[in-house]
Amino acid sequence: MNDPRTFESPEPGFVPSAPRARYTVVGGDGNWLIRFDGEEFGPYRTEREAMLFAIDAAYHLGEHGEEDAQVVVMDDHGQPRSVWTYGEDRFPPTL
Fold first, then answer.
1. Is residue 87 part of a domain?
2. Total domain count for the chain?
3. Sign of the CA dihedral 15, 64, 70, 43?
C-alpha cells in the first residue's frame, strides 16, 4: 500500500504542482454554498452571488500571500471547472 504522504512519479523529472487554496462553489435551485478548507459558507441565492463572494475571498487571500487562490464551480458531472484564479484573472471579475 502506498503512503499518501509520498509521491511516486510515473515519469522521471515530473514535479507535481503546488496545491491551490481552492474555493469550491456547489449547489443549485437557490441553495448555493462555498466550500473552503473543510467548511461550508452560505447559503447564497444564485450561483453568481456565491461565485462573487468566493472570488472576493480568494482575492483577499491572494493579497495576503496565497498566490494560487482559485475559485472553481462543480459542473453537471461533478468535475471542478476553474472560474477565477488569483494573479491570472481580472479583479473585480466580469461575471
1. no
2. 1
3. positive
Its domain, for residue 35, covers 18-46+65-74
Q: What pLDDT is attached to residue 12?
A: 47
DSSP string, 18-71: PPP-EEEEEEETTEEEEEETTEEEEEESSHHHHHHHHHHHHHHHHHTT-TT-EE
Show the cell assigned to 21. 487554496
CA distance 74 to 86: 19
pLDDT in tens, 29-78: 889 999 999 999 999 999 999 999 999 999 999 999 877 899 999 988 88
DSSP state, residue 6: -
Rounded Cα distance between 18 and 40, Å, is 23
